[in-house]
Amino acid sequence: MDQLDLFGAPEEETKTHFEIQNGEYIHIPGFFNKAKADKFFQSLLQNIEWKQESMNMYGKEIKFPRLTAWYGENDKPYSFSGITLNPNPWNKELLEIKEKIETEAEVTFNSVLLNRYRDGNDSISWHTDAEKELGKNPVIASVNFGAERKFQLKHIETGEKVELLLKHGSLLVMKGELQHYWKHQVPKTKAKVAERINLTFRVIK
């Protein structure tokens, strides 16, 4: 199997559980209904402390092509891509979202990384969520509000690809060995797209 194309996945209550080489994931396109998703999207736009982080590369300061924020219930920092983030305290909307997805993921999360993609030029390149703070075989729950964007997975050893269209109100739960064997990205697009907010809930050890 070279590539899975799941753009035709049905909406609303449909839940699909996929077991792939060295990992598994659950995809629920309509996890939050439109009314709830609209409410959360507007609230997150207005109430999250968004920042544009930057990193040093070859002696130059490079700004991330997206806005980010880090929230959690402890004082443990999270480091990735050469930066370290200290958590803001949970707000009402984040706790509401967290409580809802924990039932599905069967995990109690203590932190969330938010990424805000302002248009098609904003993106995140190939990476894994396998930092030491996340422990072995971390469960990552990804919630999406706003514009639909492609989400791609690529096996580090075989090159096998999986491609999903993550829609407004969708939930993606990545489990098992996936973070140790698969990279993922949200690529840039030349298509005219509106803003998108992605939340990846996780457990910091």
Protein model, in words:
The protein is α+β, with helices and mostly antiparallel strands. The model is unreliable at 1-12 (pLDDT under 50). The chain is globular. The chain has helices at 34-47, 92-105, 178-181; strands spanning 3-5, 16-20, 23-28, 54-57, 60-63, 67-72, 78-80, 83-85, 111-117, 124-127, 140-146, 149-155, 161-166, 170-175, 182-186, 196-202. It has a 7-stranded antiparallel β-sheet. Strands 1-13-12-15-10 form a 5-stranded mixed β-sheet. The protein has a two-stranded antiparallel ribbon with strand order 4-5. It has a single domain (3-202), classed as Alpha-ketoglutarate-dependent dioxygenase AlkB-like (Jelly Rolls).
**Overall mean confidence score, pLDDT:** 91
Strand content: 35-45%
Strand arrangement in the largest pleated sheet:
2-3-14-11-16-9-6
What is the number of independent domains? 1
Spans of at least 5 consecutive residues with low confidence: 1-12
The CA-CA distance between the termini, in Å, is 35 Å
Form type: globular
Largest sheet: 7 strands, antiparallel
Over the alpha carbons, how many angstroms does the gyration radius reach?
16 Å
Structural class: alpha+beta
Task: Please provide the ordered H/E string of secondary-structure elements.
Answer: EEEHEEEEEHEEEEEEHEE
Under CATH, the homologous superfamily reads Alpha-ketoglutarate-dependent dioxygenase AlkB-like
DSSP helical segment count = 3
Number of distinct beta strands:
16
CATH classification, class level? Mainly Beta
User: Could you name the CATH topology?
Assistant: Jelly Rolls
CATH architectural name: Sandwich
